[in-house]
Design goal:
The complex is a heterodimer of chains A (about 475) and B (about 325). Chain A has about 475 residues and is mainly alpha-helical. Chain A has helices at about 5-20, 25-40, 45-65, 70-105, 125-140, 150-155, 170-180, 185-220, 225-255, 275-280, 285-295, 305-320, 325-345, 345-355, 365-390, 395-405, 420-440, 445-450, 455-470. Chain B is about 50% helix and about 10% strand. In chain B, helix 3 (about 65-70) crosses helix 14 and helix 6 packs antiparallel against helix 7 (about 145-155). The chains are: A mainly alpha (about 475), B alpha/beta (about 325).
């Protein structure tokens, strides 16, 4: 299931080769079989969970399209409840059960329900949300129900994006399965370049930084001072490179076969506000919440207090989506609170700036650059700070890290950095390279800029990325962070 | 497709050429290679105890450096990493034997806690990558192709590096009267929240297991002794000092008694194989350890006085060994 594995490096070309050798009418069957095999590499029996979701949503969509009045709502509700039910049992049951048991113990009551001994299926939240978007779109009349069961099953479990997105919409992905895809050298080349870039981010940056992050965050109490700060900064880059790297590989591998998946990241760390950051970070998820939760709650067309409440609700749910732990809920709540505060104080801040005579955003080019830089730094700082709660194993760990990190101290013995130095140096240097590339490219993909260069610039650049990956990638087995969600 | 093949060929050539300078390695193996190339007299393996320094120490020099100061007549090269254990030492020793190197003495400290369940089971103490590299270097040292592609194969997870469950489970770990407490590992608490009870549980798990000859790390130790029997290189073991005063104070006499029994097994085995062993287990008082300053639980990390003591004792033992 790992993209950065020899197994995938063999699996992907073989599947792609047969995909292009087969006639168009059979291509979907091969992709479906390949997707099943890919998913079953984790826990084979869990394919039944996917099958359940697929059957329910396939039938529900047809029933919704053919029904009228309240029956439509009933079918949609049944579909959503089934999807969320699966999610609840496998992902949230033990969390709620543990908390209820703790509450019962506190009150001195007997609590007879035991925890379920189950392993969370990988990518459960991703394919569940993708399946839900299909039935909701059918209900809204924006999507015709898919009558071809195999094609619909492939929509839910298309293997490049099965376990960690991007979370697709039916309007984008479903029609692509019906179009003939012939091998196109330029598409394949673009896809491979994208995969290479994604692997570089994952293997060279994210996995090297993970060496420090995992050790420090596993037992934060064993570290104080600078290592906590450094590990937090490292995690800020790790999580971005890990997830955007995964998305790059998913988008790239789909593109080799002629599919266009949605973009998932757009230089989020250069966002001047948190709202902007969420429009550029995990775009397929944030737009899902916008379209299927925030707007149905009233969006921004309601009173200001109600809008603030909506933001908090959406982000708490978004936090819970990430995992069944109080850390994710608090992390989401914190983001909601930050955004709600910025909405609530927007007018007050504008008045304050006017009253103090401070230069406004549009006053001059220098003022706007300074304003952007300051806002970007504050947004990045807040996001990095919030990631402590996101990454910590518990809220008490998060509190310990936040209260014990500093710019100095904490190196308790001379061998402290042994085994970390090289990984950290490689990780941070490569992260700087990515940061620089994102500054340079602005609104233009790096690949486009590189394509304009002559062959003797392009090939050494690709070769250097591949060579660095092969020789300076981390060797520890570090799964993609978002696989667990 | 033609371009892709050409690119792959280019990458292949670059990788093979550069593998003359760069190959799968890790700093400790590179250090060992450097020491062996420089023909140092004493190869000194070890864990974090070797280079730990406590707050308030006047010098940050580790035991190998202090030993070298005391012994200008011979050269000492250390190969150490936090949490190294006999499993790794065995692989390093096999590698030394395989390449035909013959340092005069190989010093291996035995941290008695390294036989504990926590040490055996902690994921970060498994060193799977290092084991694969050392295993490969031992078995296929001359293979240029393997040298060129071992690192990429490691990066792309070509090897199953998960710890072998059966290996961990067969380690006979019990506290004499029953299985070890769950709290045998370092308590995951802030230092100020750690109670005497926590430390007691830690001490029982870390030191009061019942060691037998079937323990996988003891088997590694025996393999090392067999490998160097009758060779030009002499082995020298010593038992790292532990904070027995704190142990006895918190757990009682049973602590020292159990540790003595475990140490006794190691002493008997080394004597049976004619390997000199210096037992420093109970040689230092609580003041010689640094854990109170920055640690959470009693461990073997030594303050400056402790490091100097160990270096002096080592110097005395090695002098007589070299004379022989």
């Amino acid at each position: 299931v790992l993209f950065n594995s020899v197994s995938f490096l063999l699996y992907f070309p073989v599947v792609t080769l047969f995909y292009f050798l087969l006639p168009h009418t059979h291509q979907w069957a091969l992709l479906l079989a390949a997707s099943c095999l890919f998913y079953m590499a984790f826990i084979p029996a869990y394919i039944l969970i996917l099958a359940f979701t697929i059957v329910i949503d396939y039938v529900a969509a047809i029933l919704i399209a053919n029904a009228t009045g309240t029956a439509r709502k009933t079918f949609l509700g049944t579909s959503i409840l089934s999807n969320l039910g699966v999610l609840f049992v496998f992902k949230y049951f033990n969390f709620f059960n543990t908390n209820l048991a703790a509450a019962a113990e506190f009150l001195g009551w007997k609590y007879p329900i035991h925890a379920l001994e189950i392993v969370l299926p990988i990518g459960l939240s991703f394919h569940t949300f993708q399946a839900m978007s299909y039935t909701i779109e059918v209900y809204r009349g924006r999507q015709q129900p898919e009558n071809h069961f195999g094609i619909f099953a492939l929509y839910v479990m298309f293997y490049p994006q099965l376990v960690a997105g991007p979370i697709e919409r039916p309007q984008n992905l479903l029609p692509q399965f019906k179009e003939p895809h012939n091998f196109h050298p330029l598409e394949a080349s673009a896809g491979l370049q994208r995969m290479l870039w994604g692997m570089f981010k994952k293997v060279v940056i994210a996995d090297n930084l993970a060496v420090l992050v995992n050790r420090v965050y596993a037992n934060p109490q064993e570290h104080v001072g600078f290592p906590l700060l450094l590990a937090t900064l490292a995690f800020t880059f790790q999580v971005y490179c890990d997830f955007s790297g995964y998305s790059d590989i998913a988008i790239g591998s789909a593109r080799v076969m002629g599919f266009r998946l949605r973009e998932n990241f757009d230089r989020p760390y250069f966002s001047p506000s948190l709202g902007e950051l969420w429009r550029r970070w995990h775009i397929s998820l944030s737009s899902w919440f916008r379209d299927y939760l925030y707007i149905p709650l009233g969006g921004s067309r309601v009173s200001r207090p109600r809008r603030c409440l909506n933001l908090c609700v959406v982000f708490v749910v978004c936090g819970l989506w990430h995992g069944a732990n109080w850390t994710y809920i608090v992390w989401g709540g914190l983001h909601g609170l930050y955004l709600a505060t910025s909405v609530a104080t927007a007018r007050l801040r504008a008045e304050l700036i006017g009253a103090l005579g401070l230069p406004t955003y549009s006053a001059s080019r220098t003022a706007s650059i300074a304003h952007d830089a300051l806002c970007t730094a504050v947004t990045f700082g807040f996001f990095a700070f919030s990631l402590v709660i996101f990454r910590a194993n518990s809220l008490s760990d998060a509190m310990f890290i936040l209260t014990h990190m500093s710019f100095s101290g904490g190196i308790t013995y001379a061998g402290y950095w042994v085994g970390w130095k090289k990984a950290l140096a490689v990780g941070f240097l490569a992260a700087s390279l990515v940061a620089v590339s994102e500054v340079i490219r602005k609104n233009r993909p790096l690949r486009d800029a590189l394509l304009e260069q002559p062959l003797f610039v392009r090939w050494p650049a690709y070769a250097a990325a591949a060579w660095l990956m092969m020789n300076y990638g981390a060797t520890d087995e570090i799964p993609f962070i978002y696989f667990q969600f | 497709v033609g371009r892709l093949v050409a690119f792959a060929a280019l990458l292949l050539i670059v990788q093979i050429i550069l593998s003359f300078w760069l190959e799968a390695s890790f700093p400790e193996l590179s250090a060992l290679d450097r020491h062996l190339a420089a023909r140092v007299d004493v190869i000194y393996f070890g864990d974090s105890v070797l280079h730990y320094h406590a707050r308030g120490d006047r010098t940050r020099r580790g035991i190998p450096e202090l030993l070298q100061e005391l012994s200008p007549a011979y050269t000492v090269g250390s190969v150490d990493h936090p949490a190294y254990h006999f499993g790794l030492y065995r692989r390093f020793c096999e590698y030394i034997r395989r390449i035909g190197a013959a340092p005069k003495i190989i010093v291996i400290p035995i941290t008695i806690r390294s036989f504990s369940a926590a040490w055996l089971r902690r994921p970060e103490y498994q060193f799977p990558t290092e084991s694969i590299i050392l295993g490969y270097r031992t078995q296929h040292f001359e293979s240029r192709m393997m040298r060129a592609f071992l690192q990429p194969l490691l990066v792309f997870k070509a090897f199953d590096m998960r710890p072998e469950a059966a290996f961990v489970e067969r380690a006979p770990m019990n506290a004499g009267n029953g299985p070890l407490d769950d709290g045998a590992d370092v308590p995951h608490k802030r230092p100020e929240d750690i109670s005497d009870d926590d430390i007691m549980r830690w001490l029982r798990g870390a030191y009061m297991y019942s060691l037998t000859g079937a323990h996988p790390r003891i088997q590694d130790m025996l393999d090392i002794m067999r490998a160097f029997r009758g060779t030009r290189s002499k082995l020298f073991f010593y038992l790292t000092p532990i904070d027995h005063e704190t142990g006895t104070q918190l757990v009682g006499e049973a602590f020292s008694q159990r540790v003595r029994e475990n140490v006794g097994l190691i002493l008997r085995l080394s004597a049976a194989h004619d390997v000199p062993l210096s037992d420093l287990t109970f040689s230092l008082g609580a003041d010689a350890f640094g854990w109170r300053g920055d640690g959470k639980v009693p461990d073997e990390h030594l303050a400056e006085s402790g490091r100097r003591y160990v270096a002096t004792r080592l110097q005395q033992s090695l002098r007589s060994l070299l004379r022989d």
